[in-house]
Amino acid sequence: MTARSESEEIDFGRAASGGGFQLDSSPLLARSPVELSDAQRDDPETAAELWRDGRVLLVDEYGRTPVDAEGSLAWTGPGGSGSGTNVVLLGMYRGRARWGVRASARDSELLWSDLRVLGDWLGDAEAGLFATAVGLLAWHDRARYCALCGAGTERIRSGWARRCGGCWHEEYPRTDPSMICLVHDGADRVLLGRKAGWPDERFSVLAGFVEMGESLEGCVRREVREEVGVEVSDIRYLGSQPWPFPRSLMVGFAAVADPDAPLHPADGEIAEAHWVSRERVRRALEADAPVHGMRLPPGISIAHRMLRGWAFG
């Protein structure tokens, strides 16, 4: 087994100094100024006080929340004691505690919408609060039983942990790292793929989950090789973004590949992959409809920020 050369490693220094293109701006879901201290999570009396004067964001099982007539988040007043199993403390915003509560959109006359639709219209704080509520409540839905002994678990720390009622083991919310990589040819073409099951016109950069024992840059090499059959070099870090669908952290990279190498889309995973010109990407990013049969990711995603940085950088 040979040692990896320095040129194969992720070049953080080059990224930080501006070598090559960068994200055109910080990803929306990475900008949240909301903070939450351990004291606010852990002290039952503090949590109860924060609940009484707080505001509540309802989130259904599909990650949707009610919106008002202007398309803003429809925060509501608290009800009950705030100690239910489907209640999580999100943070402080505009002088009030913000809570997320699992609710049902059934039998509701309100308009419910999800983060992908609302993301571009929300401010940094509300987008971050909504993302936290979606991810944290989804984790609670899947963590009701202890992974060690199988007994039921209960919500603690204002929703930021669960404790087993059998062995007292504590579990904390999981975040699954995933790489997302803009592969380009070093000049004016970028490699885009369409996942199996996506609409015919929807394309994006390549992405995949990090496997056990794997580095981030190792994941970049493996996923690109597996998804389209090409090798990459010059891997550079670009930025990161929480992605609560249901609980990922998207870590963005750029890498270079040979555009003359044959593409082999992974059967059952990638429906098609193509090298696309910079000008075509620019037109698609600026359009509200598909351009020449291609629609790119929405502004809420780090993929959009990566493509804009490459296309207009």
Description:
- There is one protein chain.
- By secondary structure, the chain is α+β, with helices and mostly antiparallel strands.
- The chain has two domains: 6-27 and 175-312, Alpha-Beta Complex (Nucleoside Triphosphate Pyrophosphohydrolase), CATH 3.90.79.10; 31-144, Nucleoside Triphosphate Pyrophosphohydrolase.
- Helices cover 24% and strands 27% of the residues.
- It has eight helices and 14 strands.
- The strands form four sheets. Strands 9, 10, 11, 12, 13 and 14 form a six-stranded mixed beta sheet that branches. It has a three-stranded mixed beta sheet with strand order 1-4-3, with helices on both faces.
- Strand 9 and strand 10 form a beta hairpin.
- 35% of the residues are buried.
- Mean pLDDT is 90; it is low at 1-19.
CATH topology of the largest domain: Nucleoside Triphosphate Pyrophosphohydrolase
> Largest sheet at a glance?
6 strands, mixed
Write down the domain tally.
2
* Low-confidence residue ranges: 1-19
User: What is the CATH top level name of the largest domain?
Assistant: Alpha Beta
CATH architecture of the largest domain: Alpha-Beta Complex
Total number of strands: 14
Q: Class by helix and strand content? A: alpha+beta
Give the helix tally.
8
- Strand content bin: 25-35%
Q: What is the H level of CATH, i.e. the homologous superfamily of the largest domain? A: Nucleoside Triphosphate Pyrophosphohydrolase
In helices, the fraction of residues equals 10-25%
Q: Helix-strand pattern, N to C?
A: HHHEEEEEHHEEEEEEHEEEHH
Radius of gyration: 22 Å
Backbone shape? globular
